[in-house]
UniProtKB/TrEMBL annotation:
This is Bifunctional uridylyltransferase/uridylyl-removing enzyme. Residues 609-702, 729-799 form the ACT domain. Residues 1-13 have a biased composition (Low complexity). It comes from Actinomadura monticuli. Keywords: Hydrolase, Magnesium, Multifunctional enzyme, Nucleotidyltransferase, Repeat, Transferase. It comes from the Bacteria. Modifies, by uridylylation and deuridylylation, the PII regulatory proteins (GlnB and homologs), in response to the nitrogen status of the cell that GlnD senses through the glutamine level. Under low glutamine levels, catalyzes the conversion of the PII proteins and UTP to PII-UMP and PPi, while under higher glutamine levels, GlnD hydrolyzes PII-UMP to PII and UMP (deuridylylation). Thus, controls uridylylation state and activity of the PII proteins, and plays an important role in the regulation of nitrogen metabolism. It holds the Pfam family HD.
């Protein structure tokens, strides 16, 4: 019988497709059994070739399998890799001919070599491909001792040279990934060589052989087996040794695996590839960390599970999260019963530009309770902060997704998870496209008044894919329930629905309609008017979403020409709209009025809410914000309202005086909240002028060790014209950080301005702050040079 795989016309028929997993399991089991039977048959025949000759092979000779046959994974079109090992025999060429010629005659694709142990060892130390093959060497026939010597020598060298060989292997993998692309997101992938393919699992085993990392876990092995079955089926249905799964072969391969269609096959491949890619990223991060440590400290590399625990610094990066050895792990006091902890730790990791430690993700997946519905504000805020980290959010999101946490947080995600898009314009699966769009939208948060709705809208704009009907309409219906689940106010949910329903409105209209036609502008204006009073806001959100969506789709979907058309359409529609200015300053409610009746000053600290009522004075808001920053409190919202309050005048008569009410919502940057009594005492000292806030903030800033974190868009300062006749309205959009409100207030004070009212909102990691400011005469600034100076001073303070 021939040693080659049967020609295409003699192949066994593929299993018939069926509707259940039982048929799939049966089909895959048959493929695995065929590989095992072929491996056993090959071993018997190869052993016979070595031992049945005349004269028989002497002692000191062995036939060794490397590569796929060594792992008993040889598929019908795979290459047979063999090494004839010997102890320096002079007539070994005759033995080699006796083995190789029958193989060549049978048509087997053969990769062969003849080596002594010393020669094989030398080749392995200089040739990475040879080293990887010999690490999996398996004896087929001949001298056991000789094969044992080879394996021991190669493993000894591999482990001794790990600090050098593993970076070399890492570089080779990255070069291959650059050439082959990412398996999970390719329409016609190479299931062996692409990133996330079979080759990567073989590499993981090689790294594990160095004792630097553990062997692949059960999920990775299962993903590998799925891809191996796909490769096997591909070889069978094509009769060729190809590893690229082209579109025209996908239905046949799906049938061979008893899967319903090519779409189901692709989704299975995507899931397997992402499992392998995620595991590989964790493995290489560990390897890189340990090899860097080896460069600094020339001692043997720690083995898997050891690490460098002693003396490693743990630095807080957020509430419940610390940085440890370049990864984010749970703080010692983190409350695993807190349902918001998952998102809060993920947001901290993304904002710090660090990965989540795999053990931390596993622990969160095991212990985290479900979020209540609707979500508490802290959970929504953490989600926005996570997405607002931009590209750094992608790896963190993937870590949560691999642990099953994303579907637990957002059940609708299951509809798009691992869903391929059989369209060459799209670079990614639906779910990855959505995360990429949200990451891209983070760079556009300064362009919109509601960065939180932009980020959520980008994440959900294609959530309708995989549902019946038009995906925009289906998505708008789905996002209504999701918005309510997230706990968004009703008007915000309606804005989100409008974004999803019309996320293609601007690019489609700009490229398919005449934007000089008034009817075109009217059509867009009508669509963005679905939520009265929010028209301009929706238009700006749709314009930013179009950019994020186009860039996340692919180069063919978003060109300079298209971007220019969309921008011009948005500009013309904005000119047709009126309104869209910030809301008027809020009025005092009964609780504020009650507090304001106190003589002098009153301070109330109730949980995360801090309220101050005091005679109005310049700088009161930002000085109070400075006190909160001293106590490690991050301001999430602030409202400051000035109102007349009866008080004795200097001459004994009763006249109007201004009482300012400052209402803050503030949460700890990390750890436990500060002592309310100490906070209240410092606020009172500030009101009495007995607290040097600037000096204490400067000392605290010097004690903080800076981390690079993520790259964020530059701050933006805008003067909102016609928003008020009695004050200058200044809107500041910036990345939130400790003491932000203090810095802005100082800049306004340096310009001689007093804050009459303010509306401060921190949406995730983005601050959108609106100030109503007046000059020394109590009126607005009007001179353009003075307004330009204000903008410049604030921007300088935020550098």
């Amino acid at each position: 019988m021939s040693l080659a795989h049967p020609p295409a016309g003699e192949r066994a028929p593929a299993p018939a497709p069926a509707g259940g997993t039982g048929a799939v399991d049966t089909a895959r089991a048959a493929l695995a059994a065929a590989r095992a039977e072929r491996a056993a048959d090959l071993d018997r025949r190869l052993a016979a070739l070595l031992t049945a000759g005349s004269p028989p092979a002497p002692d000191g000779v062995a036939l060794v399998a490397v590569g796929s046959h060594a792992r008993r994974e040889l598929t019908p079109g795979g290459d047979l890799d063999l090494v004839l090992l010997h102890r320096g025999l002079s007539d070994v060429a005759g033995i080699a001919d006796r083995v190789w010629y029958p193989l060549w005659d049978s048509g087997v694709r053969l990769d062969h070599s003849v080596r002594t142990v010393h020669e094989a060892r030398t080749v392995a130390r200089g040739d990475m491909k040879a080293a990887l093959g010999l690490l999996s060497a398996r004896r087929i026939a001949g001298d056991h001792t000789l094969v044992d010597e080879l394996r021991a020598a190669v493993l000894t060298d591999w482990r001794a040279d790990a600090a050098v060989r593993l970076p070399e292997l890492s570089a080779m993998c990255r070069e291959r990934w650059e050439t082959q692309g990412e398996l999970a997101f390719l329409l016609e992938p190479d299931v062996k060589e692409a990133h996330g393919g079979l080759r990567d699992v073989h590499v993981m085993h090689a790294v594990a052989a160095s004792w630097v990392a553990s062997a692949p876990d059960g999920r990775v092995r299962a993903a590998h087996d799925l891809l191996l079955d796909v490769r096997h089926a591909l070889h069978e249905v094509t009769g060729r040794s190809t590893d690229r799964l082209v579109l025209q072969e996908q239905d046949a391969v799906a049938r061979a695996l008893a899967l319903p269609d090519a779409g189901v096959l692709q989704r299975s491949i995507v899931e397997a590839a992402r499992t392998i890619t995620y595991a590989g990223s964790n493995l290489w991060r560990r390897v890189d960390r340990l090899t860097r440590a080896r460069t600094v400290h020339p001692t043997p590399l720690p083995t898997a599970g050891q690490g460098r625990r002693r003396g490693v610094e743990r630095r807080p990066v957020g509430d419940g999260a610390v940085e440890h050895e370049g990864e984010v792990v749970l703080a010692r006091g983190a409350d695993l019963r807190d349902p918001v902890l998952v998102l809060r730790v993920a947001a901290a990791a993304a904002q710090a530009g660090l990965p989540l430690a795999p053990a931390t993700v596993a622990r969160l997946a095991e212990h985290a309770p479900p979020l209540p519905v609707p979500w508490p504000a802290g959970a929504r805020d953490a989600l926005i902060s996570l997405l607002g980290a931009g590209p750094a959010a992608i790896a963190v999101w993937e870590a949560l997704d691999q642990a099953g946490l994303i579907v637990r947080l957002l059940p609708d995600w299951e509809h798009v998870r691992n869903r391929p898009q059989r369209n060459p314009v799209h670079r990614f699966t639906v779910d990855r496209h959505l995360v990429e769009a949200a990451a891209g939208a983070a760079a556009l948060t300064r362009e919109v008044a509601r960065p939180d709705l932009l980020l959520i809208g980008a994440l959900l704009h294609d959530i309708g894919k995989g549902r019946p009907g038009d995906h925009s309409t289906a998505g708008a219906a789905a996002v209504r329930a999701i918005g309510e689940r997230l706990g968004l106010p009703g008007d915000d949910v309606r804005v989100l629905e409008t974004l999803v329903r019309h996320h293609l409105l601007l690019p489609d209209t700009a490229t398919r309609r005449d934007i000089d036609d008034p009817v075109t502008i009217e059509t867009v204006v009508t669509a963005v008017s679905e939520v009265p009073g929010r028209e301009r806001e929706i238009l700006d959100l749709l314009a930013a979403l179009a950019i994020a969506d186009g860039n996340a789709t692919g180069p063919a979907a978003w060109t300079t020409w298209k971007a220019g058309l969309v921008a011009e359409l948005a500009r013309r529609c904005a000119a047709a709209l009126t309104g869209g200015t910030p809301p008027p300053p809020p009025a005092l409610d009964p609780a504020h009025l009650a507090l304001a009746r106190h003589d002098g000053a009153a301070v109330r600290v109730t949980g995360s809410r801090i309220t101050i009522a005091a005679p109005d004075r310049p700088g009161l808001l930002w000085r109070a914000a400075g006190v909160l920053a001293l106590h490690r409190l991050a301001v999430k919202t602030a409202r400051t309202i000035s109102a007349p309050h009866p008080a004795p005048a200097a001459d004994g008569a009763t006249g109007p005086a201004e009482t300012a009410v400052l209402d803050f919502t503030a949460v700890p940057e990390y750890g436990t909240p500060p002592d309310p009594a100490g906070l209240e005492a410092d606020l009172r000292r500030m009101l009495a002028g007995r607290l040097d806030i600037a000096d204490r903030l400067e000392r605290r800033a010097r004690s903080v060790r800076l981390r690079p974190g993520v790259t964020v868009p530059p701050p933006r300062v805008m003067i909102i014209e016609d928003a008020s006749q009695t004050a200058t309205v200044i809107e500041v959009r910036a990345h939130d950080r400790p003491g932000l409100l203090w810095r802005i207030g100082q800049a306004l004070g340096a310009c001689g301005l007093q804050i009459r009212a303010a509306q401060i909102d921190t949406l995730g990691a983005e601050a959108v702050d609106v100030f109503y400011a007046v000059d020394d005469d109590g009126g607005p600034l009007t001179a353009p040079p003075a307004l330009e100076t204000v903008q410049a001073r604030i921007l300088e303070a935020l550098q």
